[in-house]
Amino acid sequence: PGAARAYDFQPTAAEWAGWPEQCKARFVVTNIGRTSEYVNSISRDVTDLWQARLGECFGMLHHHCAGLVHLERARSAVSQNAREFELDNAVTEHTYAAGYCPRSNPFWSNIEANLSIVYAEQGNLGKSLLTLDEAVAAHPDYDGSYIAKSIVLKRAGKAAESRTALIEGSKATAQ
Asked: Measured by CB atoms within 10 angstroms of the end CB, which terminus of the chain is less buried, N or C?
């Protein structure tokens, strides 16, 4: 995996509020998180819970979480250069996290589904769909990959294919 810079930023209050709980749990135990204003907002019990749930993926989770922040920053960027910079950072962070999260771990598909959204935002529909197909192949029971595929296809003007992705996901994840 290439170099990633998840430790180079502090989430804003709004970013913190919108982050998934697992991201908050990982952040507060990183070197930068332990000295942040957020350190006491997540209990050790919650951190331990997420570490147990995510297993070996927990160690580099903060890179995936940084990727989520960079994607949102790209969406609100005021210039094309700033948008491209943030999207490139999002790719780097998600790719770094995926490189340390074994493909056999179900959370790997979550990272890949989010990476695919970044590729779509960059205008690379082919790479986005390929990434989603890999995520589905690795963990066909993870509904997030199908949802991401549906979103990507819908935004690309492919409504029928978007619907098909949701139907496939419904069948694959039915209990």
From this structure: C
